[in-house]
Amino acid sequence: MYHYNKNLVSRSRDMRKQATRQENSLWYDFLRTSAVRWHRQKIMGDYIVDFHCPKAKLIIELDGAHHLEQARGEYDAERTKYLEAYGYRVIRFSNDLIDSQFASVCETIHQEIQRRIETETP
């Protein structure tokens, strides 16, 4: 089990209060009413993930333009490697994709949830 960095609690809370338009859209228009439970701005180790579904062991990250920078890409890769070591699948969507193809993003997430849950069920 990953450790929980208590120093990130206030940052995680602030991130929920200051969510981007795309994060709010995905949360309020899809994930919040999903058949599986989701958490927003979940602390996992020394990281805060955008959306976390424990049942499907799935993490969703929404990426703005700053994720295109090389240093940020390296950080994201390190973070993904850490989370995958605990059996999580990390999927990323750009904010532009949320804005332009919301239904397609939701369908992709739904399909991934189904795949992950079916794989875990004996």
- CATH architecture descriptor name: 3-Layer(aba) Sandwich
Note the main sheet: 4 strands, mixed
Q: Determine the CATH superfamily.
A: VSR Endonuclease
Can you tell me the overall shape?
A: globular
Query: Could you name the CATH topology?
Result: Endonuclease, Chain A
Which percent range fits the helix content?
Answer: 40-55%
| Uncertain residue ranges | none
Mean pLDDT: 90
User: Roughly what fraction of the amino acids lie in strands?
Assistant: 15-25%
Radius of gyration: 14 Å
Alpha carbon gap, first and last residue:
21 Å
Number of helices: 5
Helices and strands, in order, run as HHEEEHEHH
Return the domain count. 1
Q: In what order do the strands lie side by side in the largest sheet? A: 1-2-3-4
Structural class by sheet pairing and helices: alpha+beta
Fold and architecture overview:
- There is one protein chain.
- With 122 residues, this protein is an alpha+beta fold.
- It has one domain (6-120): 3-Layer(aba) Sandwich (Endonuclease, Chain A).
- 48% of the residues lie in helices and 20% in strands.
- It has helices at 9-17, 21-29, 70-84, 95-100, 102-120, and strands at residues 39-44, 47-53, 58-63, 89-94.
- It has a four-stranded mixed sheet, sandwiched between helices.
- Strand 3 (58-63), helix 3 and strand 4 (89-94) form a beta-alpha-beta unit.
- It is globular and about 35 Å long.
- It starts with 8 loop residues before the first helix and ends with a helix.
- The mean pLDDT is 90.
